[in-house]
Structure to design on (75 residues):
């Protein structure tokens, strides 16, 4: 049993109805794909540990920035 008032609707809880609504909502959302280019120049790598330190630093900075962007979007 259900009732409607104004711009409301009673919908069946099935994949066909809700799946269609979900796909329609997703189609209106901006693409969430992310492309990041990192150019690293003038770096001296003397040993394997230097490369790991550099990779860890870059990964940490990227994670920080992605978290900051998510917070700005309300995520």
């Amino acid at each position: 049993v259900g009732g409607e008032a104004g711009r409301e609707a009673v919908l069946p809880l099935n994949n066909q109805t809700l799946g269609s609504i979900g796909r329609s909502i997703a189609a209106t959302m901006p693409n969430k794909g992310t492309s990041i280019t990192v150019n690293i120049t003038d770096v001296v790598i003397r040993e394997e540990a230097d490369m790991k330190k550099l990779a860890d630093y870059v990964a940490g900075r990227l994670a920080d920035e992605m978290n900051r962007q998510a917070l700005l979007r309300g995520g």
Remarks:
- The chain has one domain: 15-72.
- Residues 15 and 21 are 10 Å apart (CA to CA).
- The two ends are 36 Å apart (CA to CA).
- The mean pLDDT is 80.
